């Protein structure tokens, strides 16, 4: 395997940068997922309340 | 709404916390620690991997133990949601276990020159992966939902003993002493572990635990949504 000729400090900075990028990617993905789940939950609640209102209307008409 | 705002603050705090952990592990921990400890373990500067490898292994065990506890709760209460919680924890446990295996392989490559050496610790983590792969295989093999949950939960209870044993006990048995450096032992074992090293290590443990908690909560919310969707489709 070929080796990259960099001094120890540069190597440390490279590893630090890569680790940070990986972490920010994971964090960003979790944040994005959290937002989507939150929106789905809100939509679900909205639909549930609509269904409840509709059934209450139907009961009153009867 | 207020709760969601606190959740957002916690997420941002976790993001910054982990950035600080990563920066601390590479820049704040004194280089002489890496030199002394790296020489002892043969890792050189690569010894800094302990700030990631050990917390990930710790979260693996935490996830599997939580999964087993929810399996016990399922067998007692028979609630579908408890089974989902057990499955989600086991799934995340496997992800963290793979991360621990990969970071351990890097460890091995730096120290012993090859990625895999069948060292006792590598072997036990391999068994742990097999154990949970079998859990998911068992679940996939049963089509009836109730039976699948019951069988899975009964099997998963074993994990309460298996995962701590394979990660913490088996590799330390005298008869299995291998090449892997006992870094946790060294933290209590008289080596000059300075306050900075210990601070970053403990902060990393807390940070990775936070990442697990966040991911676990998301997975459970997805399961609840799936359940609600299924109920709605039945009602329609």
How would you characterize the overall build of this protein?
Chain A has 62 residues and is an all-alpha fold. Chain A contains 1 helix and no strands. Chain A has one helix spanning 8-61. The longest helix of chain A has 54 residues, at 8-61. Chain A is rod-shaped. The model of chain A has no long low-confidence stretch (mean pLDDT 84). Residues 186-191 of chain B have low confidence and may be disordered. Chain B is an all-alpha fold and 236 residues long. Chain B has 9 helices and no strands. Chain B has helices at 2-28, 31-41, 50-77, 80-112, 120-141, 145-157, 159-169, 183-188, 195-235. Chain B is flat. The chains are: A mainly alpha (62), B mainly alpha (236). The A-B interface holds A 8, 11-13, 15-16, 19-20, 23-24, 26-27, 30-31, 33-34, 37-38, 40-41, 44, 47 and B 4, 7, 11, 14-15, 18-19, 22-23, 26-27, 45, 52, 211, 214-215, 218, 221-222, 225, 228-229, 232.
Helical fraction of chain B equals over 70%
Q: How helical, in percent, are the residues of chain A?
A: over 70%
Question: What is the rounded distance between the termini of chain B?
Answer: 30 Å
Main sheet attributes: strand count, strand direction, barrel closure of chain A: none
How does the overall form of chain A come out from the CA principal axes?
Answer: rod-shaped
Low-confidence stretches of chain A: none
What percent strand of chain A?
A: under 5%
The total count of helices of chain A amounts to: 1
């Amino acid at each position: 395997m070929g080796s990259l000729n960099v001094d120890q400090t540069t190597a440390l900075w490279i590893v630090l940068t890569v680790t940070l990028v990986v972490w920010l990617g994971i964090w960003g993905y979790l944040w994005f997922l959290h937002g989507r789940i939150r929106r789905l939950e809100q939509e679900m609640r909205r639909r549930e309340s609509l269904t409840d209102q509709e059934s209450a209307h139907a009961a009153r008409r009867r | 709404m207020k709760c969601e705002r606190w959740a957002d603050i916690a997420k941002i705090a976790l993001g910054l916390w982990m950035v600080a952990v990563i920066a601390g592990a590479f820049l704040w921990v004194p280089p002489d620690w890496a030199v002394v400890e790296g020489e002892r373990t043969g890792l050189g500067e690569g010894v800094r991997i302990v700030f990631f490898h050990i917390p990930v292994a710790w979260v693996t065990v935490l996830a599997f133990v939580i999964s087993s506890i929810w399996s016990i709760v399922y067998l007692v209460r028979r609630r579908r949601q408890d089974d989902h919680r057990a499955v989600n924890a086991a799934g995340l446990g496997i992800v963290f276990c793979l991360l621990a295996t990969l970071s351990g392989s890097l460890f091995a490559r730096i120290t012993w020159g090859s990625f895999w050496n069948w060292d006792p610790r590598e072997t036990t983590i391999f068994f742990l992966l097999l154990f949970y792969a079998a859990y998911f295989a068992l679940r996939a093999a049963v089509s009836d939902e109730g039976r699948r949950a019951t069988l899975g939960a009964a099997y998963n209870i074993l994990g309460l003993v298996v995962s701590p044993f394979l990660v913490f006990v088996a590799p330390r048995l005298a008869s299995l002493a291998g090449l892997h450096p006992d870094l946790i032992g060294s933290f209590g074992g008289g080596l000059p572990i300075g306050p900075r090293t210990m601070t970053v290590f403990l902060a990393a443990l807390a940070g990775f635990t936070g990442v697990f908690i966040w991911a676990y909560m998301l997975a459970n919310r997805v399961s609840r949504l799936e359940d609600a969707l299924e109920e709605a489709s039945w009602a329609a």
